[in-house]
Amino acid sequence: MPRASPHLVLLLPLALLFGGPVACAPPAAAQRSIVPATGFADLVERVVPSVVNIATRQTVDANQAIAELPPELRGTPFERQLRERFRGRREQVTGQGSGFVVDGEGYIVTNTHVVGSATAVRVTFSDGTSLPARIVGFDDATDIALLKVSAARPLPALRFGRANASRVGDWILAVGNPYGLGGTVTAGILSARGRDIGAGPFDDFLQTDAPINPGNSGGPLFNLAGEVIGVNTAIYSPVGASVGIGFATPAEIVAPVVQELRSSGRIARGWLGVTAEAVAAPPGSETSPGVRIAQVSPGSPAARAGLRQNDIVTSVNDTQIDSPRALARAVAQLSPGTTAKVGVLRQGRRQEVSVPLGTRPPMPPG
């Protein structure tokens, strides 16, 4: 995924290269923001067996790993010492994260940044059962990965709820493996929704004040009906640990990605091939008339169809476009090879351009 800001911490899988953790369905009406008289204990007992700890191993070039140190450690004596110690070496890196079962046959959801580069993955359940897992597939753009384990019996599975039916202020629970402390449960509220944190082109994060920390990555965020409404992904923190601002990918984004990964092992998204920028809303209006094409990639579907720099894109098929993020999502929801009807405003004249979409290239690392 794109590199986060200095205070935005992807809940990385606790890399142990340096000898220790680097700090760094319709909803039930009863879930509405009222704490049960018994607290959360009954809910926790029900969901914890479906949440797993994930341990990974990979071989990396040590200098590459050092280059990916958190920004707050760069330029410090610690970085210089590491460079001297590991210069030119290849190291075994282990990491930890979280995940949860979405199908009794052994399918487990987690984050791409937990397992994407791993050569070996093992999951451990709350009863101590430990199983090797294979990576079915992963999606860089949404940071969602799907694993598969083979178990002797059906596994307890969780179901997705509707994040968009949860209100700001509703109680939520997070379960995961922070700092290797498996089975940790924290509670808080849904603090905000629709957050764009600069992690990727499809940012639409839920924000919560439930304490989540490094190692919670890939773990579930629950409503009080026991449904997964999000997958914990990142925190905003100047210290690398929870300060009450955490982010989760909503279930509405996660569920279709999981379904496609299960069926084909990969995500194929439509690609237009333009760089877009926001257009200021006209005086008296609250909405933008579209987005301006700042650049058209040579040889891209947009270039072949005749889209031009400075065209204002106003719609894609039946979807109105009012931001670069809306354009990225509208195109990504279409399959490669399909023809998108792109409404544009060019030199004051409205027209529609038919664009046979290509396949979205992989996101660059970083």
Question: What does the secondary structure layout of this molecule look like, with pairings?
Answer:
Layout: E1 8-10, H1 41-47, E2 51-61, H2 62-67, H3 77-86, E3 90-103, E4 107-111, H4 112-115, E5 120-124, E6 130-139, E7 144-148, E8 171-176, E9 184-195, E10 205-208, E11 220-222, E12 228-236, E13 246-250, H5 251-264, E14 270-271, E15 274-278, E16 291-296, H6 301-305, E17 312-316, E18 319-320, H7 324-332, E19 339-346, E20 349-356, E21 358-359
Antiparallel strand pairs: 1-12, 2-3, 2-5, 3-4, 4-7, 5-6, 6-7, 8-9, 8-11, 9-10, 10-13, 11-12, 12-13, 14-21, 15-16, 16-17, 17-18, 17-19, 19-20
Index terms:
single chain; 366 residues; alpha+beta; Thrombin, subunit H; Pdz3 Domain; 2 domains; six-stranded antiparallel beta barrel; six-stranded antiparallel β-barrel; 15% helix; 36% strand; globular
Account of the protein in words:
With 366 residues, the chain is of the alpha+beta class. It folds into 2 domains: 1-266, Beta Barrel (Thrombin, subunit H); 270-359, PDZ domain (Pdz3 Domain, Roll), CATH 2.30.42. The protein has helices spanning 41-47, 62-67, 77-86, 112-115, 251-264, 301-305, 324-332; strands spanning 8-10, 51-61, 90-103, 107-111, 120-124, 130-139, 144-148, 171-176, 184-195, 205-208, 220-222, 228-236, 246-250, 270-271, 274-278, 291-296, 312-316, 319-320, 339-346, 349-356, 358-359. The strands form 4 sheets. The protein has a 6-stranded antiparallel barrel with strand order 8-9-10-13-12-11. Strands 2-3-4-7-6-5 form a 6-stranded antiparallel beta barrel. Strand 19 and strand 20 form a beta hairpin. The longest helix has 14 residues, at 251-264. The protein is globular, with a radius of gyration of 22 Å. The termini are close together. The model is unreliable at 12-32 (pLDDT under 50).
